[in-house]
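Morning. Coffee machine broken again, so started the prediction first thing and wrote up yesterday's gels while waiting. Chain of 404 residues, entered below exactly as on the submission form.
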Amino acid sequence: MTVTAPLRELAVLFLRLGVTAFGGPAAHIAMMRDEVVDRRGWLSDREFLDLVAATNLIPGPNSTELAIHLGYRRGGLAGLSLAGVCFILPAALVVGCIAWAYARYGTTPQVGWLMYGIGPVVIAIVAQALVKLGQAALSRWVYAPVGAAALVAALAGVNELAVLGAGAAIGLALAMRPSGPGRSTAVLAWLAALPAALAHLQRGAAAAASQAGATVGAAAGGLAAATVAAVPFTLSGLTLFFLKVGSVLFGSGYVLLAFLRADLVERWGWLTDQQLIDAITVGQVTPGPVFTTATFIGYLLGGGAGAALATAAIFAPGFFFVAVTQPLIPRLRASRALGGCLDGVVAASLGLMAAVTWQLARAAVVDLPTALIVVAAAVILFRWRPNSTWLILGGAAAGWLLRG
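Came back before lunch.
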């Protein structure tokens, strides 16, 4: 096979996913698994799960970094760049067009009907991926309770990094402990201690955040007006800000919202709260990465140049982190201790993905028609295994017919 063939295949695949991958990171990961494991056989479920775990351990948008990982695995550094750009570009162009209309007319498109139909389909797609990935990741029973504990902890609001760290610690302990009856007792003991340990971490983080917030709030109270006036907008400032966000941000869209609001609204006064909410909303309802919120904000503040710079800056760290970390994954897997950590992180990642799916389902399944769409999509997926793109288009059509 020539070098250009896999690159061409990568470009076509991730351009299509960039156009049709609605529903957030969990849905994107599910769609990527369907394409690269079931349909193309580029890697096994276990290899895919190792990449998912790796994306959870570095800052940045998980599903975009997974696309970059897959491109690297398939086409080297050229594939890394191509897969990432092709996944990001369609979403950035769509969001840029919406930002232009928003700046011109002062409102975002009314697309509630679109997610009304697509949301339930996304739940079925993610559920199928969870079943398949769970079969691969939890084939050794000792890791099933780790995934279940991660699910419970995530639903209870425990920080994602704390859950992943606990999973890594338990995986390490399991890997280093000899097999036998005592191992089962140890697993139960570790899991029994896990909720208390995570709760302690959560309380400590909350107390630290509260103290820091009080300190910052007291300082900001007297200097707010001066601070806003003293930080005029510049393209270089915008670029450096989004480069920082892409380099340090872990967690969900809610964490992204907190990061953006702290600087862009409160400290610098570059955006209003309503503009920020509209930017986050557009990132959520359009296909592709949620981080294209940066494209919207960049356009509002700096036009086309601002949109391009903000988009490049927030995604650039992910390319670097993937290039650095992917060569380490085989070494981690080859080590008994580090492989155990990776297995623990894989199990915890599945628990986090299941928690997100539950939260998405509560938001998407709101009445009988949406419940029927979920059931129909699940039956079609498990029985005939069509390409998920067709199901997404079918969900959009159903939403238009029912709500359009």
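The two ends are 46 Å apart (CA to CA). Going to sketch it on the whiteboard this afternoon.
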